[in-house]
């Protein structure tokens, strides 16, 4: 980028994954508030719920990789941030297997796949804690946001049908932080 160019005219690519994760979680939350899912699926809304959940999980893996990429080798991120991104991504990937299978089948995934939820949720939570530490130290993400990251998963679960709205807000805020950091790096 030209040194005299306006920062607003930056051509730095804005990572799309956080926006996709936020939009999918928003779709999931709103649809769950308006419709109670039945399994086996009996309506289009049932498919939208499971499809949005599957899309959110996969997009969140790509989004956490974008978060890690903007931190690179920056001071404060380190192994803690790398481990957090890895655990968070693995947790989402494990949960995505039975969710995506359920979406494709239109009914619950076979029992052996259901056991992936337990380690998936545990890895997701552990990843959030480590990501919070790294984001707080590094400062790319606003520190108050970094401080509450570990609370997002328990809050999502506690809110039930509206819970995915927490994930939508989380990735919307993280997405803005990632985009700002990417623009700064491009200068």
TrEMBL record:
UniProt keyword Membrane present: yes
Transmembrane region(s): 12-33, 53-71, 83-106, 112-133, 145-162
Keyword line: Membrane, Transmembrane, Transmembrane helix
Superkingdom of the source species: Bacteria
Record's protein name: Uncharacterized protein
Protein's organism: Microbispora cellulosiformans
